[in-house]
């Protein structure tokens, strides 16, 4: 599989990554053996980028699951996890970027993942109570200690990315290499706000929800009932299932099928066509989904294709 440089570094990640939020004990998540099949399918497909968080699953369950599975494959992958999200919302709802929190969180993640180092340690959500310099200095220390190799973030506003970039440069600290944000054929708000910040700082984008929570898989069609056990049946996602979006989905399906492809292949290859994107993070609950995601990016869209897709999606 094609590998791309992450930010302004020598770290190479597969253009399709595996999101591991489906591991670890939450409702509808995979058990250990189910997760093992997905992980090994990803390795077989050439995926080397595995993304998780200490807050995925129950009590760090996703990290625990990955730690149990990886074994001798640990050295072959780029292992990414996150900190800052509350582990127990009954005790705290704070997103914590303080030095004290980070120093404990990294030790807990290392223990759960059964590893001596984390390849990419990501600031999950910004903490308005902690100055960004404090967070960056703590992360810089972890790099010097060898516990973390590179640092990144997720869900930071564009101005926060630029502020973090300037702070790193001004204080001679290691810089954030990438950010995770929602981006897909149906969610393109990042283009106007986030992209200029990425171009200025040299950071990469790791898009999440690349399939728009399932809308870009062809699973949800206009005039058809939403499957009772699907993500779109959950209240959090129902607001995304609008008539306008379903109309766009039908147009995208027609576009893909006219070229001998599926809408999933279109969604993944469209993201991969963007030079700001280093890896498309896609979750999976079945091995065949991993294989399909990996195969999807082999479709190389032309400039004419991209222009037509802009028209279809109103951009």
Automatic annotation (TrEMBL):
UniProt-listed Gene3D superfamilies: NADP-dependent oxidoreductase domain
Oxidoreductase among the record's keywords?
yes
Keyword Oxidoreductase assigned to the entry: answer is yes
The residue ranges of the NADP-dependent oxidoreductase domain are: 16-312
Query: SUPFAM superfamilies, per this entry?
Result: NAD(P)-linked oxidoreductase
InterPro entries in UniProt: AKR (IPR020471), AKR_Detox_Biosynth (IPR050523), NAD(P)_OxRdtase_dom_sf (IPR036812), NADP_OxRdtase_dom (IPR023210)
Identify one Gene Ontology CC term for this UniProt entry.
cytosol
- Protein keywords: Oxidoreductase
From the UniProt record, which GO molecular function terms apply? oxidoreductase activity
Q: Which CDD domains match?
A: AKR_AKR11B1-like
What name is this protein filed under? Oxidoreductase
Report the source organism.
Answer: Nitratireductor aestuarii
